[in-house]
Predict the 3D structure of the following.
Amino acid sequence: MISSDNKKDKDGFSLTYSFTSKEIAVLAKYLRENQTKLPEGLEHFYKAMEDSVYNSLSLEEVRNFYS
């Protein structure tokens, strides 16, 4: 199930979104391949995406996932 909740916070805007497994896989691979081109400010998003992959797979599965 995909849901989004946009709300304004003290720093501006905030977005809550539940990613599907497929979306996480595609985004994680894309971010890994383009990590040197990521604009400043996406470091935490990149780290959260990669942590999600690492926490869901074994080390061998992670190696296969990113190869």
